[in-house]
Amino acid sequence: MNRQTLISLFRWGALAPMSGLGLIVALCLVASGCGKGQKETEVSPVRVKTEVASEQMNLANRTYVGVVEEESSTAVSFTGSGMLTKVYVSEGQRVSRGQPIASIDATQARNLLRSAEAQMRQASDALERMKQLHDNNALPEIKWVETQSQVAQAQAQLDLAKKNLADCSVSAPASGVIGSGVKSAGETVLPAMPVATILNINNVKVKASIPEREIAAITPTTHTRISVEALGDAFEGGRIEKGVVADPITHTYDIRILVANRGQRLLPGMVCNVEVKGASAPDGQDSGITVPITAVQQGADGNKFIWVAKTKAEAANPKALAAHRQQVQLGEPTGDRIVILSGINPGDQVITEGFHRLSEGTKVITH
Predict the structure, then answer these.
(1) Is the domain of 66 the same as that of 212?
(2) Which pairs from 40-44 meet CB under 8 Å and 24+ separation?
(3) What is the pLDDT along the chain (367 residues), one digit of tens a residue?
(4) Are 338 and 352 in contact (CB under 8 A)?
């Protein structure tokens, strides 16, 4: 007998003849049915990530996204063309100066060398014969000069042939790590076409893009700190190189921060956070509440808002939290965060992750 049936029986007096004990049992069934229905309609709270809003001093300490680059790179290439016969290195391999990198087919170069050697022998023999005549004053001076010139030409051809044969293999001009884009055996290469690239990562550079209104505050000696999540470690930045040409779309300038790479743990392509310290704050701001830019949303009416987690009074759980949509007025961005001029107060729990599944009053649980 379900809850609705019992209610109907009470309404029409069908349970009137029941004894007192039967009536109590029926009432318990009704109460049990009601409680079960309530549990089935309960919605699990949404798991979100929050941060406590606080007034931060010295907004000049800003954080930007950066990427690690090699300090310098050297392209290894051939001076002539030919088909690669051997490649001795692979991407990521550490090489030393003078270590073989690759070689191309040397058949033609060897043939040219043999031809040059034969011409050199012929010219040397002619010189020996002519020398005897010259010593006996039986040879015109012009013929003697001509013979010497032929020897010099043969020697030049021989030297060139030896160099061409030597150029059929290339070695590392410097120590470092082999980068991407290594050619494979069987490919045809042309003069100056890179076969491999050697990266110098004893020191690295961290590249970051700085908004044009903030670039003036950064100097070559500005203190920076580089945090690399992939390594779970942070590094002190060194001297800064500032770009002088802005990106025409984003209106940002690139900076490159020199970082000592002890142990060569920092590898090109790693993403990191660059904290720039000691710059002057924009528009004279010295303090304020900031939130991640990604936490700010825009409503259908065009107004900006963020989600905050507020205590929801419940008898069962007096500390239960619910999502509340809070309209805010924005200030200036500071790195990957933005100043909140009004709308939230210090101590508010700002929802920074998981807000895409929220609506007003949604129960939330933080982690």
Answers:
(1) yes
(2) 43/363
(3) 544 444 444 444 444 444 444 544 444 444 454 444 444 456 788 999 999 987 764 555 788 999 999 999 999 999 999 999 999 999 999 999 999 999 999 999 999 999 999 999 999 999 999 998 888 888 899 999 999 999 999 999 999 999 999 999 999 999 999 998 899 999 999 999 999 999 999 999 999 999 988 888 888 999 999 999 999 999 999 999 999 999 998 889 999 999 999 888 999 999 999 998 755 444 545 557 888 889 999 988 999 999 999 987 665 566 788 999 999 998 877 667 788 888 988 889 999 999 888 999 899 998 7
(4) no
Strands 94-95 and 304-311, by their bridges, are: unpaired
What tokens appear for 220 in the block?
């070559």
∠ CA 186-190-191, nearest 5°, is 135
Instruction: Give yes or no for a contact between 73 and 268, defined as CB atoms under 8 angstroms apart.
Output: no
Last residue within a domain, chosen from 284, 316, 341: 284
Q: What is the pTM of this model?
A: 0.54
Domain-embedded: residue 317: yes
User: Do residues 342 and 358 both lie within one domain?
Assistant: yes
User: Is residue 156 in some structural domain?
Assistant: yes
Q: Which residues pair with 62 in a beta bridge?
A: 276
- For 309, the domain range is 46-57+286-366
Determine, yes or no, domain membership for 262. Answer: yes
Angle subtended at Cα 235 by Cα 232 and Cα 241, rounded to the nearest 5 degrees: 135
User: At residue 239, what is the residue type?
Assistant: R
**Same domain (yes/no): 81, 183:** yes
On whether both 66 and 51 belong to a single domain, the answer is: no
- Are residues 175 and 46 in contact, defined by beta-carbon separation less than 8 angstroms? no
